[in-house]
Amino acid sequence: MFGTFSFRGGVHPPHKKSQTASKPIIELAAPAKVIIPLSQHIGAPAKPTVKKGDEVKIGQVLGEAGGFVSAQIHSSVSGKVVNVAPHPHPLGKDVLSVEIENNGNDETVEFEPLESWESASRTDIIKKIAESGIVGKGGATFPSHVKLSPPEDKPIDTLILNGAECEPYLTADHRLMLEKTEGILEGTRIVQQVLGAKSTWIGIEDNKPDAVAAVSEKLSEPRYQGMSVAKLRTKYPQGGEKQLIQAITGREVPSGGLPMHVGCVVHNIGTVYAIWEAITRGIPLYRRVVTVTGPSVGKPANFLVRIGTPIQFILDTCEVDMQTTKKLIMGGPMMGLAQSDPSAPVIKSTSGILAYDKIYPGIRSHACINCGNCVRACPAGLVPSALGKYVDKERYEDAEEWNVLDCIECGSCAFVCPSKINLVHFMKLGKYHVMAARKAASAK
Asked: Which of 1, 31, 32, 42 is the most buried (most CB within 10 A)?
């Protein structure tokens, strides 16, 4: 551990983690019915392998990966498939999903771990990870087997684990680091072996001293040689891939580039724990830890939740009064998505469910005063004020030239804007139009 690391830009929203930071992870009972979307990852949706009337078990494949950049989908309960049809998804649209009526027996397929992974080939380990449907659990949902397969001309020398959990309210990763320390570090060893990384850093923000202490103590064991804790200065969005790389290594990912272009790979600590479960226990990704909290939550908690569990089932368990609840967010308050339908299910990227008993009335925006606050706050080194103006005037080519595609949509610019301009909206709109123009051009 060498001091406290940080990156340029960023903001300091209130932490709001005290409700659940000290609450151990509890396994949530399975609901009577789960709805499991076949699209829970970046890339092509999975192709259904079951039909209405089929009997399934926990861990059974419900959807085969629809391409290289895709992921398998597994059942989280045992029971009968009652429907394969579009259903509301947390991203705000209807997605083809498998609806399963839980028989309560918790029957599982035979889980098959990878024997002696230390001597297993890189190909076999990556294949097992792909078969287990593991994706990035930090929110991006990039299929893990793809991230672990960089081109031969892009050697990886540094592995970085994201334990920052910089979003307010969320404590799922914090609790994992305290309660599943060995599993996380063993998963890190597996990833380290696959990548051939010479150095490994575990980035943890300094507002989690107990997690820093727990991981550091475990790292004293000889088998974890080459791993170090990077104590990160608490600042949002410290958990962004490019921000972690800059803070820990000093390297800067080029515009339009990926971490592999500077010899790095970044994984969330929940992802490497899932990899450890898949490799050593044969358990596919059918459950995850979710923080349930917020002003209108009667019983805040960190739950181990089965994928496909309806949001409403979790809210009922936590005694959330839906009559007084004004807003639901899946994820954190900075980058999470507001939910209009509580029948939408938990998916692989669901890190939190926040419930608020009030919402602020619409805040009127004013003209930009060119104060520069958004420029100082932007962790990607952009000029959000200029980008917002270009998009507002539909000057998308100018927005592309000013690197709108490098925006990570963290919301730091809008957070500090005194004119209350919804800059994130303009960034998203600009990226949409730029990508649409590129797609149209390539189709000609």
From this structure: 31
